[in-house]
Structure formats: structure tokens, C-alpha cells
Amino acid sequence: MFDIRVYRPAGPVLKRFHESAAFFRLMAGPVGSGKTAGAGCAEMVLGAMIQNPMPDGVRRAKFGVLRDTYRNLYSQFIPSWFEWFPREVGAFVGSDDRPAMHTFPVDSPLGPLEIQVEMRALGTNTVEKTCRGWNLTGCFLDEADLMPEEVMSFLSGRVKRWPQVPYRVSKGVWGTFNKPDIDHWTYRWCEEDRPANFEFFDQEPGILPGGPPYQDNPAAENRERLDPDYYTLQADSNPEWYTTRMVRNRWGASVSGEVIYPNFRAERHVSPVELAPEPRAELILGLDGGGTPAAVIMGRDRAGRRIVYAEVVLVDPYDPKQRRLVTGVGPARFAVAIRDVITARFPTNRFRIGYGDPAAFYGADREFGEFSFMETVGQRLNIGVSPAPSNEIELRIGAVKGLMDDYSIGGQPGLMLNPSCAWLRRGFTADYKYEERDPKQEGKALKPRKTATSHVHDALQYAALGDVGRAGVTAGSAWDRQRPAQRGQYGSEVWRTIDEQERARPKDWGQRAGDGHGESYKNDFNPWRA
Prior knowledge:
By secondary structure, the chain is an alpha/beta fold.
């Protein structure tokens, strides 16, 4: 029988999960991380312990458990439940294809508890019909990624209803899952648009980044209850899409193509807070043309890291989920969207240059003075825009990868995103992938798939390649032309310190573009300035 006196959470993330007072809670982790045992079983006892005792001194609680099908309820969740709360303890009623109820007592450090747990499954019924009639203290979603989003709405009205006031202290709605693709509602809740009174708990992956050979992650939770080779054996024996989701605990692994940036880690490459450039610091634009254009605004901090401060993606204002791109956007409208971001967020910064899709510099009638798409955007912004050094996809991707994987600046990655760059982050996580490999053409070079996030990633690639330079990609960071160097004692190159870079700047740097008030983002080298 479960003894709360000897229970220890499987790790620090699960411990924080137990301690949270958020009404909605979700936790993701690799297989075997103790999610079901901790959040699905022990949480029931902990939730009962916080209720106020009734006149007879007993604390009572009634919890719900929801699964996708009764087959999975009885074959997956209930066997795990019986490991903690045996069937013969208390009263258990239930059979295949119908709800189950388990009522049992627990002797806790705070006194006696009486817990009722009713287990249901959606099956072929609607969420509304399945949840009807439930009066609960709280409810647990086992494998929340297998259920529709409306379970959160309907269950929010079924909890906080038993026992009656003043004995009830509800624990809300909570669930666990293995991370699905980024189109799933759990990704939006956990990573993009977190609702009020919601908290997300993300467990450590089972293996360290890289491999093969794979290495166990010593920080993984529940390790003492698993075989030493539990995770490495799975990684060696399964395809990468399975390893990514079930072992690495990452979003969006799919058999439809490989993720282009497998080394991306949100906890490393996404800033926890919104970063802003210093006043008068130089910034650059990355631009992708076409009917669904996109842009990024990038700069360098004092340590030399590239920071993506903002992205510009034109979204259909009538799309409630803000995921449908506007098509048929011309250069004038695109320039207005970029100017709105610059004016609001970067009024005191100077834009050194913009790098755009080389293909968008063609198609204009030069004989009669027409401007191409990119030239029109640059003219309207009063920023000089040049073609990126190359349109070779591997060179462009290599520029971004080189910055991401460069940890030579104080142990921090050479590329950092602001948390507001949701489209870039979605692409880094899973949406920006290579096309599916054709088994009949094993040697064919794969191209990235065209998705909603591919346009803004193209813009980032043009900015990165233009800023680093072709040599910075092919020869490494030592040839990064944006890291000013000076000759050492024996003629070798050594990096300038930040102070040395500042002293080397012209005294009027940052003031040439105007008076610093409405025109501070103009470019000195703009060919269209009057």
C-alpha cells in the first residue's frame, strides 16, 4: 500500500509540480521518468492532504482520471495504479469498456484520508458527454497529448465541486504527456500562449545532446528506478523520430522529415527575458521575398553574440490562432510592416545594412529605372539592402548552425533568440525540416520543406550569412568578419577586446544617421538618401 511517509519525488521537476498551486498544470518528460507514478498516483494523496478535515477528522477528496480509450485505461493506466494502490485495498469497481471507481483510506502524517478516484475514457463519446455529471476535487489527464484541447475547458467546470465548502481545497486540472508535434494544442499552451493560472513542467531528457554514441543524462529523473542502459538502449534501437520525442523529450519529432537544426535547445538558444539592443547599437536586417515575405532584425551584444531581437511575419488578422500567413504581399506593404516594428522597438538604433534573398533582386526593368522587390523595400525603409553572399542552402544553413554551435564566447551560444520570436522558435523546434527522403533516391540531396516557418528561417539565414561572410562559414569563426582582429606579436590574429573595439570606433559613430530622434535607423550607405 502507498505510504506517503516514504514517498520521494523522482526528481526536482516533479517536486516543483507537486508544490505548484496553479489551476492548470502540464508536465512533459521522456518515457520512464516517473510521470504517471508521481503526477497520476502520488498527486492524489498529496491533493487529499491539503483538503480541510471534516467534522469527523477525515480529509476527503474525489479525483477523476481521464484517458483516450477504455482499452488504454485498463491496459496502461490501471496496472500502474494497482502498483501503488492495490485492487484489494478499499473498494474497487470496474471492468472493460466502462468507468472504474476506487475508494480507499490512507493514513497520512496529517491524519486519516478518504480518497475516491473515478476513471473514465473518451472512447467514441464527445468530451462534453464524457465529463457530464462529474463533481470532482481535481482531475488528472493521463497522456494528455492523445486528447482534444476542449478537455481543459470542460474539466475546468467539473472540478472545485466536491467536497462542499469549507472543506474543499481544489487541485484543479493537471496532466502528463510525451511531447507531440508542434501543431498540437499542448505545444501552444506550453510554449507559445500560456493561459492564465497555468504552469508547465519540463523534465530533463534521458540522454545528452549528440550521438551516436549516446550518453546517459545524469540529470534525468527517476534514474535510480531504471536500468543503467535504459535510455541509451532505446536510442540505439529506434529511429531518430522516436528518440527525439520519447528519449530526448523534444517537440515535434515526425517521420515526415529530419529537423534541420537538431542541436537547437530552447533553454540555451532562447533568452528567458526579452533582450533589447543598446541605444545606437548597429543592427542588420535579414529579408526573404516572395508572396509571403518575412524579416528578422539581428544585432550583436557586447560579448559578440548575435541576438535576434525581432521577427516580422505578416499574419492574417482574421485567423483566431494567428497561424495563417498573408499571401500576395508586395514590397510596399512589407516595408510598412518592418517600419512599424523598427519605429516601435528600435527608434535609437542604426541599421548598418540589410541582406536579402538574391533571387528577389531580379525581375525589374533596369532600362527604365525599376527597382526589384528588395530594392523597393530598402528604398522605402531608407536602409541599404544587398543580396546575401549566396543562395546555396547548405551554406545558409551552415551560417546559422555555426553560430548556434559556437560556445567560445563565455560558454554561451553564438546565436540567441528573443522569446517573442515565436515563428523562428517553432521552426527551430520541429516545423522547419528537410523533405522526406525517397528510398529510391538515397543519394539525393534533400531540401527544406516549404512550411509557414520556412520564410522567416530563410530571412535569418540571409542575415547570418551576410553578417558572418562566406569565409566565416567555410573556414570557421576565426574568419568571422564581424569579430575585429589585430595583429599579435608574431603576426598572428588575436581578437580585440570589447573596450578596444569601442575605442576604435569613430567618435561620431551612431550619430551619422540623423539626430537620434526620428531617423536614427537610417543607413550611412543608403544609395537612395537625398
